[in-house]
């Protein structure tokens, strides 16, 4: 029945210290307890997000959109209503609720869903169902191509031009855009080395170290943030990946990102943030890392507590590279 | 932590056996423990003092210079065994200072006032000391005095007599130099005074944490959120003491541990909780995220240098930087015995690396082979990050550190070169 899971959930949250109790946390929702209208593809995506098998904002966005395509494909408008009136409240919303329950939505998912809903609203009541479905599927495909694939390509291209010969590029953890950028710079024939500072919980940096090392880039690896002050001084550029950027220009990144950015700025090393524009939230303003964050469900017990993200204030970011800016795409964070 | 079998030497065992075993074995014993880092951090001060006490008590010496030499040589060996533990050098310097003090007191007591003035009038005749700072007063126990000039004067005072003997005979034959019964008695008296003095240093080291904890309720207020980074025993005691008087919350930041089983600070949690103080365990990664909630940051220093800069565990630097970003006060706990009279250290020279095998397994051969892995254990924190230094003499500001150093180390000791 529903009871045990409800109790378990209450239990999990009871470990959260009161001063952080406003912050949401992902949780595993048993598929049998999900709303009956949740599509199997969405169920699967939700489970992967709850278990952090899919965890960065762009992978989550892509998984969501692909699952929604399945939802749209299998959708049949009931009689005496139309897709534009029925689809969002009765079909799409339960999917969204379920995904949110599995793990709080990231800002890119929020942005994409808003665009999708706006697209549905453009259809007339009389738009034939097939035409509407085709239109939605096409726009999702276009969206994935432009806002995810092309964006990643362009950011890597722009950012890789900032990597010079003999540079020492420092990065934190493993971020998809930083990885692409560094591989691209290597393909461009640049000889540089990379200093990777890792998050000991995630160990993504170690994977990145192995990937870059195989590409022939000399790597120095630090398993934690110790010795950061020295390492940022030795670096010529710091490349950081972002999960979101708020209206205030604050960069949300994996916990530890802000520490790296601050240390680098204090050492006089330039800090470049990489972020796709779909991750920008122009409405939300975060005051600090406790405004919008998530509790790590793996580290939520009486003996440990951990937040997944932190916020880097604008003054510690020399520039943000996105896919949309002209030229190098290099611009101050507030300007976006 | 490696399992400690009954066969492995430990500091406790070493200290227990000091009385019975010969000096060289004791010194070697501590060097062994230091090299294996089985004695580390705060323990080093205590251990060094105990060994130097043995040096004073057990080695044969008839002159103060000889004793200074013996202590310097034993001290240097300990410093070389653990160059990453600056407190060892501090204790050696404190003991050297103590010996000089006791010797000069002794002499002042014995000596007639004219021989003191004799000595002082002699000073200008002696070739100007090259390295020793020119300091007026009754402690010119510098080499320059005892070398050629000392030959001119044959004083009755024990100290000068012995220095003359010293320069005439080589050090190795010092023991065989005939000495009168009276001199022997003075040496005995001096020896026991020095041993008492070292005992006082040991007491100071042992009591420092408690004395620091006595100041706990000054800087912790009810309702505070105190971020304790890698709490040292001193910090733990401080928090527990504060918990007996105030209601606040402690956020303990400790490094990532592999197994999620036993908690490193479970004893601290138990004590705090029983006092009604909540404890939240965080990791030292990404402390910026919690800083808006934190009201104060506290950690212990491994050493404090003359400029106020510190040697701290690497997570502390991270916390201090984040605290500065949010203008949160940073409290550093350090016994006065951790004050290093050395020149300003640079951060590179004090960065200490540790075995990274807890992060990257050696089974991952290719990674271990091809990637340069560095796991930083301790690093230098510049003074501008700290608001208050709480010592066993009370809370101090950075400006005040210099005078505390001057109270505890004389220029002679500050310039002593220990180790390589």
UniProtKB/TrEMBL annotation, chain B:
InterPro entries in alphabetical order: eIF2B_beta_subunit (IPR051855), IF-2B-related (IPR000649), IF_2B-like_C (IPR042529), NagB/RpiA_transferase-like (IPR037171)
UniProt GO cellular component terms: cytosol; eukaryotic translation initiation factor 2B complex
Entry keywords, A to Z: Cytoplasm, Initiation factor, Protein biosynthesis
Presence of keyword Ribonucleoprotein: no
Region feature (Disordered): 107-144
Subunit relationships: Component of the translation initiation factor 2B (eIF2B) complex which is a heterodecamer of two sets of five different subunits: alpha, beta, gamma, delta and epsilon. Subunits alpha, beta and delta comprise a regulatory subcomplex and subunits epsilon and gamma comprise a catalytic subcomplex. Within the complex, the hexameric regulatory complex resides at the center, with the two heterodimeric catalytic subcomplexes bound on opposite sides.
Name of the protein: Translation initiation factor eIF2B subunit beta
